[in-house]
Amino acid sequence: MRAAVHTAANEPMRIEELADPHPRAGEIAIDVTSCGACHTDLHVLKGELPFPVPAVLGHEVAGVVSEIGPEVTGFSVGDRVVTSFIMPCGQCGQCARGNEEICEKFFAYNRGKGQLYDGETRLFRPGGEPVWMYSMGGLAERSVTPATAAYRVPDGVELADVASVGCSTMTAYGALRHAADVRVGDTVAVVAAGGVGSALIQLAGSFGASVVVAVDISEDKLANARALGATHTVNSAEVDAPAAIREITGGRGVDVAFEALGSVPTFEAARDSVVEGGQIVVVGIAPRGTSGEFDLATIARRKLQIKGSYGAKPRRDMPVLLDLVARGLLRPQDAISRRYSFDQVQDAYDALRRGETVGRAVVDIG
């Protein structure tokens, strides 16, 4: 099969021929139709998140089941599926407590070593050299994933529309539902209106938020945010974002501010935009070592809540999201602004690096 292989920080990925991967116990193989281009992949490509090389990135996968490993039930060859970027083992202490989004094996094996849960990769160069996997290694013609991370796509839903549900949409849902528990009438700000930010904006209305303020430095992204349901937009390159948000909310600040990029300026904007008792939810993945400041007295005096959110609970929440898509209540395709062929995969990430991608870009593979 062909795969986009990452070999060194800040070097272009290159398309290589790898041996076809095959599933082992509890796993399935997927012929990949499309894969979203996520900012977390970009952190790895830039060397900002440590990860072994050579590696295949890509974790927003839509495709068709092509092979089923032993001990897998509930799937058939030919099923149309989408994957969650978090691959819950279903066995560790966190999974047992319902905290699949912080699965112990996922972080120890996959994020730490590029392996699946028997301690090995499924990807190899023709000479036998191992190639490591970021999640299921979706920037390839064929991908292997634990069956716990795959979900059938409802009839009538286009595969090409839903690859990003498994990461940007699921990440946004987890932040809104589990971290912040947004309720009808709440006011929210989304600081950084990229892929995850776009999903936060789109879903916030479904949760009943009365005010959704999108903050960004790009007018194109702010226009897209308005199309996705933002009630107000703020260009933080032109005005003081926290002051503008307080003006919009009658001097209060918002109930919840989501930081959706992973940078110091966006964190500071979110931090300074909330009302007393408000929540600052950090969703964006920052380069390792990035630090944000917070006055400890302010936290206590204003009763502020600072929370981290890595994603939703895949086995509970992915079926909910796909049902919303099937009923037309969630339209991830509206956030897709660019589509690339597999041969253009590096172009997709170069555009993401330059900040040109509005919403989500998708690489069409199969």
From TrEMBL:
Protein name as it appears in the record: Zinc-binding dehydrogenase
Enoyl reductase (ER) domain: residues covered: 8-363
The protein's required cofactors: Zn(2+)
InterPro entries: ADH-like_C (IPR013149), ADH-like_N (IPR013154), ADH_Zn_CS (IPR002328), ER (IPR020843), GroES-like_sf (IPR011032), NAD(P)-bd_dom_sf (IPR036291)
Keyword set, alphabetical order: Metal-binding, Oxidoreductase, Zinc
Keyword Metal-binding: yes
SUPFAM superfamilies assigned: GroES-like (SSF50129), NAD(P)-binding Rossmann-fold domains (SSF51735)
Cited Pfam families: ADH_N, ADH_zinc_N
Gene3D superfamilies, alphabetized: Medium-chain alcohol dehydrogenases, catalytic domain (3.90.180.10), NAD(P)-binding Rossmann-like Domain (3.40.50.720)
Family: Belongs to the zinc-containing alcohol dehydrogenase family.
UniProt xrefs under SMART domains: PKS_ER
Species whose genome carries this gene: Saccharopolyspora erythraea
